[in-house]
Amino acid sequence: MAPTVPQPRTPVEQSDPVRQWYENELGWATTPGPGPVRLVTGLRFDVLELPAEAGFAALRHLGPRAPVALRGETMRLLVGAGSADELPGLLDWLEWGDIPLDLTAVGAGGHIDAPTPPGWPGSRGAAVWLRPPEPGCEVEPTLPALVSLPAAGGAGTAHHGDPAVGSDLVRLVDTAATQCHRVRLRRRNRQPLAFS
Predict the structure, then answer these.
(1) Helix, strand, or coil (residue 104)
(2) Cα separations (Å) of 118 from 92, 111, 112, 142, 164?
(3) What is the mean pLDDT of the chain?
(4) Candidate from 5-14, 42-51, 73-82 with smallest mean pLDDT
(5) Strand locations in 42-114, DSSP E?
(6) Which of 1-5, 17-21, 75-79, 168-172 has the lowest mean pLDDT?
(7) Would strands 128-131 and 68-71 be described as parallel, antiparallel, or unpaired?
(8) Residues 56, 186: Cα–Cα separation, whole Å
(9) Backbone angles phi, psi at 37, to 5 degrees
């Protein structure tokens, strides 16, 4: 009797439909291995994280196609790759550098929990998309970045009102910092006073 050859096994990480959706439909890198799917930052996008309460006010500085995720009370705004490295200098330039803010950036070498793909059932407390990415569309042109994209047909920069072009990162960060500061002040004012 001839020995039978077993069928090859599909690796666990490739059989995960969420991982497949991100890698195949969007072309986004995920962290390898079993467990929750995590998106690699710093390759196609970086992420600004801020309190959701502050984030809603900053949405007006994002193009209509810029992806935005929410996990609990934290909003995640996708921004151009390399923006995380620019955040400290931008905050200093905007005169927010010495003020404590709940505004952080995740860039090269980082990762975030992958939000549940739009229309899919998710677990309670999982990250979700407020503005999902569009399969088959490049995400980079929709993201705010410091360097503007070249204008069609010539030198210079494209007009920021063009919905095909990423919004201005400077205005986004300034608005996000302002809103984070307001949220922080409101939270501080809600705390009971300590009497000695």
Answers:
(1) strand
(2) 37, 20, 17, 18, 22
(3) 82
(4) 5-14
(5) 46-51, 68-71, 74-79, 104-106, 111-113
(6) 1-5
(7) antiparallel
(8) 16
(9) -75, 130
How many residues are recorded in the chain? 196
Which token pair is 134? Answer: 């569009």
From residue 77, alpha-carbon distances to 12, 34, 61, 71, 183 in Å are: 30, 26, 11, 11, 17
Name residues whose C-beta falls within 8 Å of residue 101's C-beta, 6 or more positions apart in sequence: 91, 177, 180, 181, 184
Say if residues 135 and 25 touch (Cβ distance below 8 Å): yes
Arithmetic mean of pLDDT, 72-90: 95
Q: What is the pLDDT of residue 122?
A: 78
The DSSP element (H or E) to which 171 belongs, if any, is helix 169-190
Joined tokens for residue 104: 């952080």
Lookup: tokens for 111: 């990762």
Q: How distant, in Å, are the alpha carbons of 49, 54, 65, 179, 188 from that of 59?
A: 13, 9, 11, 11, 24
Q: Which residues of 22-51 are buried (b: 16+ CB within 10 A; e: fewer)?
A: bbeebebbbeeeeeebbbbbbebbbbbbbb
Q: Range with the lowest mean pLDDT among 7-21, 63-77, 145-159?
A: 145-159
Question: Which residue carries 């550098």 as its tokens?
Answer: 97
